[in-house]
Structure formats: structure tokens, C-alpha cells
Design goal:
Layout: H1 3-15, H2 23-60, E1 111-121, E2 124-132, E3 143-150, E4 156-162, E5 173-174, E6 191-195, E7 200-205, E8 208-211, E9 213-217, E10 220-227, E11 241-245
Antiparallel strand pairs: 1-2, 2-3, 3-4, 5-6, 6-10, 7-8, 7-11, 9-10
Helix pairs in contact: 1-2
Amino acid sequence: MSELERLRQAMRDTERPDASLDLAVVMREGRRLRTRRRVAGAGAATLAAGVAAVVVVVAVGALPGDPPTPERPPPVAVAPPPAGVSPTASTSSEPTPPPTVARDVPPPKPLGQLIDSGVRHGADQRVYYFVGVSVPGEPKVSIGLAAGRRAANGMLTTDLLVNDVDGADRSPGFHQIGYDEGSSTVPVPTFGYFVGPAHRIVGTVGGRQVDARLARWSMDKQVLIFWFDPVELTPGERLDGIIARDASGRRL
């Protein structure tokens, strides 16, 4: 018989006419029932807390490989790219070759004699000279004119190189003219070459005429190298026109 049934039985016994009410029994059975209910309630609360704890442990301590919860995805660690690799480059496990850097590359070998322009940059001489070039599909273009500097120890530095890109580099008349583009650490006076019997080269800029200085190429006397004094023509300033005249002053 359960505790509740025993209590009910005790109360029914008191309802009989011949029965006397035993308050001590009723009180004792009632206390025992309330005590059992309190214990059962505490046990149920403890079980609920245990279930909640298990749920929390499972959510936080998920096994490796389990998908992340949508509420809080795991942080993503982003490592910086290796040195020498751009942020958009691949960072695979394969070694990245170091970038190729040209070091101690000798300047082009001059063809013929160097032309001393008379212009000085500190202790360096401004010189002009031809070098060999190669233009794909243009077999008649084989030389280019360089503006360089020669140091006191003879070391040569090339600042600017110009050459034809089509036709023939020995055809009569003017060829490519070199202008200072600001890429050199020192200004490069305007220069170029003319093929033919010229004795005077005259440039026009801003309505005035400027005579160029001249020198024959040692390997071909028909090739006339010319340059403009930077005092007379600011390096980089474009000519409006240029003409060549022969020994009698006739325009070529």
C-alpha cells in the first residue's frame, strides 16, 4: 500500500461512526507524504540541471570535424603570406622562387668611339655612343643611340637609349630623337642623329632657333650625332621643328 493510500485509509477510518479520530496518525502520515514529495521535487530539479549541463558540454566541446553551429561559427585564422609573395598570390606548400633581380649588369658595349658632349654632371662626363640593338621583324635596325655618363674611373652609365622601330637605321634624314623623360637622376640634354652630309642642325622651339652641337660617328662618317646645350634648350622641352643644312647652307 502506498503512503497516499495509507493516509486515505486512516481518514476513512475516522469517518466510521464507531471510530475515533486519531490525530497523531493523520499528522504522521501527512508529514511522511510531504517529505517524499519534497525529495522527489529536488531530484527532478537535479536531473533537469544535469541534462542542461550535458547539452552545454556537447555544444561547446564539439568533436573535431563536427560542423560549426550557425549561431557562432569558429574563427578563421589567416596567416600572412610568406615574404616575397603578394597577398593575392598562392600560398601553397611549394617553395616560391625568389624574384629575379638584375645586379651588376654591364652597360651595352659602345660601337665606335664615345662622343664627349662637353656637359658635366659633377665629376661625370655626358657622353653619347651607339650600341647594338635588335628589333623583331626589322633586320635593318641594328643600332641605337645612347646618352650616358662616364665617371672619372671610366665606368659608363647609360641614362637613355633611342632607336628606330621600323625601316632602316642608316636611311638618309633624321632618326629618333631622345628627350629627357625624368627617369634619370640627372637631366639628359635632347639628342639624336642624322644620316647625310649635314653641317648644321637647327631646332625651333617657341619661335626661336637653337643650333645643335655636332660630332661624326667614328664607324660611319655619314652618321652625324647632335645634341642641344641644356642652357639653350631645357632637357625634356619638345622641339617645334628641326632642320639640317649642308656646307653651303642648303636645306637637306
